[in-house]
Write a structure and sequence with these properties.
It contains no helices and eight strands. By secondary structure, the protein is mainly β. Strands 2-8-6-4 form a four-stranded mixed β-sheet, with no helix packed on it. A two-stranded parallel sheet has the order 1-7.
Length: 110
């Protein structure tokens, strides 16, 4: 007698990103589109603002496939990811300036 074993897939992971002011789409590590898909109806795969987000990945087949470490029949997994605050350096001014009543770099005309 023989049987076909359930294929176990590694749960994908996502990273952390630094704020850019532009939309960031998370890259899933270990995501295999042959066996699963990005569930855009219940997950966030792109964002612009600093914060924590959850991408949802769904198995294409909950009978013959399963997520590693989870019970068979669990088809959705939540993959957390985030956009972190970007640290900006404070600019410095070097040199010596004397107050003249005018803005630096301007000249007074009569």
């Amino acid at each position: 007698s023989w049987s076909i074993a359930v294929r176990e897939l590694t749960i994908p992971t996502a990273g952390s990103y630094k704020f850019t002011g532009r939309e960031i789409e998370t890259a899933l590590t270990g995501f295999d589109s042959q066996y699963s898909y990005k569930n855009t109806t219940s997950g966030t795969f792109s964002a612009t603002h600093v914060g924590s987000y959850n991408a949802v990945v769904t198995l294409n087949d909950g009978v013959n496939l399963k997520w590693a470490g989870l019970a068979q029949g669990v088809v959705d997994v939540v993959v957390p990811w985030n956009i972190m605050v970007r640290t900006v350096s404070i600019p410095t001014i070097t040199g010596t300036y004397e107050y003249t009543g005018n803005e630096p770099g301007t000249t007074e005309t009569a």
